[in-house]
């Protein structure tokens, strides 16, 4: 049920060549499974079992980390989601020194094509893999395109029902690039995921030798390798020689709430409205007619919305449709409105518009 409360409270040849360094020990090769190991997971590739190593489920969704281009120097014009999970793992044999690996292909698309159904499926699979009475896995790693990575990572953080570790990882350069960052990112992600020191920290994002909590982490640059950051809160750690080094003991935000989606079959439609000078949001009624169940205002400053837009939003709120006031700046706090006459907007607190959308869908 959507409730009107403050969210502050509710709340590839080149690839193979680049990673073909000799492993530290003899590495078991991937083998194709003829029969799925579990009816809950569509496992298509699995490493041979090594006693004493933890077990990691890699859910691949596509993205730049699985992308390919005709040129090894081209890191902008490429096809995302060209390489499957088996090739990703096989390109980094060092992975099998730190964990036994099962891989499943949830999707193989650019992250702009990730749907609510895919995200809901990943959440349910992660909970099945880690949070049951007899979990099959010790950790989950999700490979993902970077454009919407923070949305999926935050959704998992808000819906994972145990303190096991999920790491979401991507790359800023395709697998075929001469300086592809995917192999090292994947190795660091799996190594971080299976580390006991990672437990109790929520879902983590690992890229570019940095470890970031999903609740705070956001993409800050369209092209640079060091794009995922948490400006206000900072990183929680970074891999040193692939092994995670954390700056602080495990902790969770004081306002964090986890939502159980196990009985949810679909997420409601919530639209994000981008504010600007003289914004009207005239299309909200059409959105409602087409099934929108809520709106996020990506406002100016600390959630500012123009008076013309407020008129349209006041009308949809009068129909019981929730509206969250957030900020397109992506940093800072949108506080609850203390003026009752101003309307009943929900405060996004410190969540940016896309994370506010995911939380509103989960309430």
TrEMBL record:
Catalysed reactions, semicolon-separated: L-asparagine + H2O = L-aspartate + NH4(+)
InterPro entries per the UniProt record, alphabetical: AsnASE_II, Asp/glu_Ase-like_sf, Asparaginase/glutaminase-like, Asparaginase/glutaminase_AS1, Asparaginase_C, L-asparaginase_C, L-asparaginase_N, L-asparaginase_N_sf
Domain of life: Eukaryota
L-asparaginase N-terminal domain mapped to chain residues: 57-238
NCBIfam families from the UniProt entry: asnASE_II (TIGR00520)
Ranges of residues in domain Asparaginase/glutaminase C-terminal: 269-361
Signal sequence interval, chain numbering: 1-21
Protein name: asparaginase
């Amino acid at each position: 049920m959507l409730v009107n409360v403050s969210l502050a409270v509710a709340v590839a040849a080149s690839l193979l060549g680049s990673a073909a360094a000799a492993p530290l020990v003899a590495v078991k090769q991937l083998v194709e499974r003829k029969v799925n190991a579990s009816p809950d997971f569509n496992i298509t590739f699995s490493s041979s079992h090594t006693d004493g190593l933890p077990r990691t489920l890699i859910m691949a969704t596509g993205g730049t980390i699985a992308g390919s281009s005709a040129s090894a120097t081209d890191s902008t014009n490429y096809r995302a989601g060209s390489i499957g999970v088996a090739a990703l793992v096989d390109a980094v044999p060092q992975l099998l020194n730190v964990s036994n690996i099962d891989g499943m292909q949830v999707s193989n698309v650019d992250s702009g094509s990730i749907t609510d159904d895919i995200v809901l499926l990943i959440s349910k699979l992660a909970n099945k893999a880690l949070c049951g009475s007899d979990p099959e896995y010790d950790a989950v790693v999700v490979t993902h395109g970077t454009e919407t990575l923070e949305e999926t990572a935050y959704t998992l953080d808000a819906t994972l029902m145990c303190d096991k570790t999920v790491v979401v990882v991507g790359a800023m350069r395709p697998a075929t690039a001469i300086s592809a960052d995917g192999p090292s990112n994947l190795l660091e992600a799996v190594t971080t995921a299976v580390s006991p020191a990672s437990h109790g920290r929520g879902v983590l994002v690992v890229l570019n030798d940095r470890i970031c909590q999903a609740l705070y982490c956001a993409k800050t640059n369209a092209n640079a390798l060091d794009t995922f950051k948490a400006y206000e809160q900072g990183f929680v750690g970074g891999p040193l020689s692939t092994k995670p080094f954390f700056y602080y003991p495990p902790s969770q935000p004081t306002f964090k709430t986890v939502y159980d989606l196990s009985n949810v079959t679909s997420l409601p439609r919530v639209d994000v409205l981008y504010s600007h000078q003289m914004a009207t949001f005239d299309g909200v009624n059409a959105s409602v007619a087409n099934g929108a169940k809520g709106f996020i205002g990506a406002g100016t400053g600390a959630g500012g919305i123009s008076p013309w837009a407020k008129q349209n939003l006041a009308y949809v709120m009068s129909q019981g449709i929730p509206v969250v006031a957030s900020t397109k700046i992506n940093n800072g706090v949108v506080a609850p409105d203390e003026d009752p006459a101003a309307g009943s907007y929900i405060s996004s607190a410190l969540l940016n518009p896309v994370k506010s959308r995911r939380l509103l869908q989960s309430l």
